[in-house]
Amino acid sequence: MDAELKSLEKKISILLNQYKEICHENNKLRKELADSHAQNEILSEKIHIAAGRLETLLLNMPENE
């Protein structure tokens, strides 16, 4: 009975350590995802600005006849 309890205790300890590692990894991935979303917003805004500038340049281009 004592050996079974020690085995169970060891398995629970391993499970808890794995749980902690997964929680840490999940938090890291959540931060990376949030950073990626923020970077995506910045890049989208830059694309929008560049598209507006390009449109302005195209509208002001002299026409060749």
For the termini, the CA-CA separation is: 97 Å
Which bin fits the share of residues in helices? over 70%
Strand runs, count: 0
Mean pLDDT: 95
The class by helix and strand makeup works out as mainly alpha
Q: Using only CA atoms, what is the Rg? A: 28 Å
The coarse overall form would be rod-shaped
The helix count comes to: 1
The ordered string of helix (H) and strand (E) elements is H
Q: Give the percentage of residues in beta strands.
A: under 5%
Low-confidence stretches: none
The biggest sheet, with number of strands, parallel, antiparallel or mixed sense and barrel status, is: none
Give the topology, please.
Blueprint: H1 2-59
Structure commentary:
This protein is an all-alpha fold and 65 residues long. 89% of the residues lie in helices and 0% in strands. The protein has one helix and no strands. The N and C termini lie far apart (97 Å). The mean pLDDT is 95.
Which short descriptors sum up this protein?
65 residues, mainly alpha, 1 helix, 89% helix, rod-shaped
A few lines on this structure:
With 65 residues, the chain is mainly alpha-helical. It is 89% helix and 0% strand.
